[in-house]
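Exercise 3.2. Students should predict the tertiary structure of the chain below and write it as structure tokens, then compare their answer with the key that follows.

Predict this chain's 3D structure.
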Amino acid sequence: MKKERLLEIRKMMENFRCIKKEPRNGPSSFIQILVQACTLQNAKTILREQVLKNGHDGSAVIIVPITQEGKIILAIEPRVFTKETVGIGFPAGYIEEGEKTWESAKRELLEETGYQAQELHYMTSFYQDEGCSSAYNTIYIATGCQKIKDQHLDQDEYIRYIECSLEEVYELEKLGLIGGGNAKLALRYLEKIKVKERVK
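Answer key:
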């Protein structure tokens, strides 16, 4: 990756870096903890805490968008509890009530980037954190993506997207700028399905 390009990406990241965190008293408006007594087949009972997000399990989709020109779209956004407090990953979002995973993938891609995919390719599904959550995430690769509108973000959502070559994506991962488990797993599946002829 050219030095100027990396500098440009780091500058975008700097804009979303968290400079101050202050604890706030009062109940959470998004995360809830549900304590459950779980009886096992062996008649033992164990206490477990379940994380809920906005009253739901927090299942989500992760989308790896590939443009018609063969570029990969990445999302830069605040990740305030990480070491860097900002991260690079793929567009992603929660599945809404009654929504199919592929519907959610199309909606989230359009909302976060303004791009629409010609095709969605299901890759895999997995539990986000099975020790304390029932969130079940699904990865799609979206091909033939074309910009059709502006971003439409939620009130507290801040996302800049960038188009990168596959080599640039690997370099960002190697530099530790792509560090999230969801993004790393999605990138491994991108390698696996041999779409490299569509990616430049």
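Discussion points: The two ends are 13 Å apart (CA to CA). Residues 3-15 form the longest helix (13 residues).
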